[in-house]
Amino acid sequence: MKKITAIYPGTFDPVTNGHLDIIERASKLFDNVIITIAVNSNKKPLFTENERVDMIKNVTKKFKNVSVDFFDGLLVSYAKKKKASVIIRGLRAISDFDYEFQIALTNRKLVPEVNTIFLMPSEKYSFLNSSLVRELASYNANLKEFVPEYVHRKLKEKYTK
Prior knowledge:
The protein is α/β, with parallel strands linked by helices. It contains 6 helices and 5 strands; from the N terminus they run βαβαβαβαβαα.
């Protein structure tokens, strides 16, 4: 039987419980899941790529079929390089759909053998995103429901420097 590798790209600045919900679902659906940190020149991340890799590795170590990487460039080229046939995208709300749909169709035009799969997080995380978490962290808010403890500590370290 063919093994299926999926890629879950994002900036993960920082990884949230919503991301972890998607990662857990994906780990049950696919043989291998590569969480890949995308370099986005339009964003100024709070955490370095290495810090984000560290956080994701720490909070996903219980998933034996999940690995972490980062890339700079075209996602479908990275997918081909990694022999991945699936790109995973999370959809929180209808507002995410238009953008994600355009990207998925463009990727399909570029590399038809790579499919995009949309996964929705649990409804308790449907409002959650990394920008909101960073803003809350800047005000020293309690983030225990939004991010894993390890990530919470890393956020506190960033905002108390």
